[in-house]
Amino acid sequence: MSATEHLEIELKFDVDPGRPVPDLTRLPGVETVTGPIEENLDATYYDTENLDLTDHRITLRRREGGHDEGWHLKRPGDAGGRRELHAPLAPPAEGADHDTTVPSDLLDPVRVHVRARRLDPVAAIGTRRTIHEARDADDRVLALLCADVVTARSLLPGGSCHTWAEWEFELVDGDTDLLDEADALLREAGARTASAASKLARAIGATPGHGGAPTVRSTGTALELVVAELARHREQLVEFDPRVRADEEDAVHQMRVATRRLRSVLRAFRGVIDGPKVDRLDAELKELAAILGVVRDAEVTADRYRELLVDEDASDAVNDRLVGEQMRRRARGQRSAVAALNSARYFSLLDALDDLLVRPPAGEDAEVGAKKALRDAVRGSARKVRKAQRKADRMDTDSPEWVEQMHTVRKRAKRLRYVAESGSALGTKKYAQTASAAKKIQSALGDSNDAALSRDLIAEVARTVTDPADAFVLGRLDAREQAAHDEALRQYARHADDL
């Protein structure tokens, strides 16, 4: 049985033991209250030695008892709620009291945090729960009020045991507007703001918590700016890791962008941050981007041909060669990407990136002002774009050397765009125009390159077709791609001197 997920939206309160619950029919839309339903819950919470899950407000537990016993993974979700993933308990191994192997469906979404580290029990929590169901006139359950008496024992070194009472008001089919009314009603009945965000947090005590990407003052140093930018893009990489594993739409693209932005910062700010650690991390990020690129390029190409073929009467064979083969290539690439994300090499990359943020190898320009470092990086990146453009201008258009050089122009324009956008970390829009111009150059050259590659594939397919109708279809596609290529180069010429 596979895991299921839902969004948990609840209010949590501390209460005095034995405090009677209020009449929930006082809430708007609540007609009846059923219960009480008694449950005894015994849960073991798991984390790494460094509490990597807790640090990111993630809880992983194995719970026996209750209507939803099993393994539960809770992560921050949208609308202030928590995404809860549930998997059933598995039969224990021979000679064991219960299963202790975390289901892969729950481990995959947090592998980017756990990596190769071991998950061990960090807390044991027992709950005596009394549930009251708030129902509407159609007998739908709008919300649950759980009155809990909790006994929690920390399994960490020096841990202790605590007992307390709390109320949890969890939405089921009710509207979020019900939360404000419930908050007022429960506080009137003696509820107090919860002293901890979760039972686990109260059991093991406060942890530093993951504060996200650091900020940098406009008067800060170049090193502070670089670390803030690296941390920001690291957050994006980590955010999209589980989405790539789940094959969510656009996830590969966003994760690939994060790796490219990380590399742009590492390269543009040499002198601020430098050394062998930077070189190794840059090389590993390049490899990761290449792996993700196989998936991204295939899905973009498949979408391109789907659009081109919409109004064409192409045969199944042509559709398969242009779209089907790209989708098969994407599927192979997706499997390879997930394998890479489960590899020791990838985990080492993440560890190296985390280490770099904590102990950045400062270069000779580390103490330069952040504003000056940003200005120098933007100017330096812009000079490299212009230099590559001048070199291309001396070459014969459409020659292999020119094509390769225009690819260099595109890569340098992309790097300039990413560096110029780093100004947002300082709260300045000074380089927004530069970033916009670089993006236009990058996009135009990207479009021309995509059209050229598409023409190559169309020509390859054309050499294998025998049906004249298919040949006509492919000829029309080639003409459209030629027009797209030429238009992209005209757009490039319009913006080539904007930097």
Automatic annotation (TrEMBL):
Residues 6-207 form the CYTH domain. PROSITE patterns: CHAD, CYTH. Signal peptide: none annotated. Gene3D superfamilies: CHAD domain, Hypothetical Protein Pfu-838710-001. Residues 216-499 form the CHAD domain. Residues 67-86 have a biased composition (Basic and acidic residues). Residues 67-104 are annotated as: Disordered. InterPro entries: CHAD_dom, CHAD_dom_sf, CYTH-like_dom_sf, CYTH_domain. This is CHAD domain-containing protein. It comes from Williamsia serinedens.
